[in-house]
Specification:
mainly beta
Length: about 120
């Protein structure tokens, strides 16, 4: 699982292994160890209608509707997104998607990725 954060947006990308585990077990979580603390990030199923996000205790959690998650690993749906309204009137963009293999040369590990639909692979 990877996350990308920019301003008021967060994107979670899940490998095929991540998607299967998430769908079957109801959630997944990973950690990044810093010298002063541990950052946790995860995706959890919840009885909601739209994506939601929360950040507390050094953890960011993306909540996903159970109705979407139940068969996501068995279908061709790439992902789900939502613009969450903030208390200050702004919005926070949320995106959950399957992680596709890169088309260009990259140093990133390309194992356990979905075949890129634009790559013909």
């Amino acid at each position: 699982m990877k996350i990308r954060i920019k301003e008021n947006s967060v994107r979670f990308r899940l490998t095929p292994t991540d998607v299967k585990k998430f769908c079957e077990e109801g959630g997944i979580e990973e950690t990044t160890q810093f010298s002063s603390t541990t950052f946790r990030y995860g995706v959890k199923q919840k009885q909601i209608e739209k994506l939601q996000v929360d950040f507390k205790d050094s953890a960011i959690t993306l909540y996903v509707p159970e109705s979407f998650a139940k068969d996501w690993h068995d279908n061709d749906v790439v992902g789900l997104d939502h613009h969450e309204k903030l208390a200050n009137g702004g919005t926070f963009y949320l995106l959950l998607e399957k992680d596709f293999a890169c088309l260009d040369q990259t140093h990133e590990d390309q194992t356990d990725k979905y075949p890129n639909p634009k790559g013909g692979c």
